[in-house]
Inverse folding.
């Protein structure tokens, strides 16, 4: 799976991106078991061609791939206050930038964890594992989008393709399934695309 990339201003230049993880295989080895999961991140300045691979602090997730990660900006007032456990966390969001990661797999284990990542924290980035309630089934290959302060996760894979829709209210950190979708049946899927 390829890494995830998002626009991000850094080092005083608005023309930058931040890229997260993915996986790779050693050259000449075709076995799927040879895949190595990555959950690193790097900043790329598109103007200068310079990139950094900083070491993040905090609750760094275990290596995984096929997770979802979304850029949550402009409406950080919707984010639960317990995401920020220090003044430095609050300061790190002053530029209205936060990333929310959910799920993924290591190839052996599937995850149902949710993390927040603050790219401007101390200039290197900080992870925080979120204490969420009513967690959905662990999965990978799903998609996530944010609508009005709610992260919406669709489908994925765990012992079979899934067709459920799970929502995380970012103000309460409580997962729920929307009632209005009970009338509709989404064909099961993974490795698809969703966006708002």
């Amino acid at each position: 799976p390829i890494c995830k990339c998002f626009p991000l201003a850094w080092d005083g230049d608005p023309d930058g991106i931040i890229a997260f993880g993915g996986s790779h295989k050693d050259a000449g080895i075709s076995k799927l078991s040879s895949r190595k999961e990555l959950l690193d991140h790097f900043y790329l300045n598109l103007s200068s061609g310079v990139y950094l691979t900083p070491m993040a602090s905090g609750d760094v997730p275990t290596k995984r791939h096929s997770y979802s990660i979304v850029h949550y900006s402009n409406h950080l007032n919707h984010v639960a206050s317990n995401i920020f456990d220090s003044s430095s966390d609050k300061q790190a969001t002053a530029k209205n930038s936060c990333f929310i990661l959910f799920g993924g797999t290591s190839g052996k284990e599937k995850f149902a964890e949710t993390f927040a990542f603050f790219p401007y924290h101390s200039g290197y980035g900080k992870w925080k594992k979120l204490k969420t309630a009513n967690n959905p089934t662990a999965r990978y290959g799903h998609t996530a989008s944010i609508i009005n302060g709610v992260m919406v996760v669709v489908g994925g894979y765990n012992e079979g393709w899934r067709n459920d829709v799970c929502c995380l209210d970012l103000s309460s950190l409580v997962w729920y399934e929307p009632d209005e979708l009970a009338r509709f049946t989404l064909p099961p899927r993974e490795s698809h695309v969703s966006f708002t």
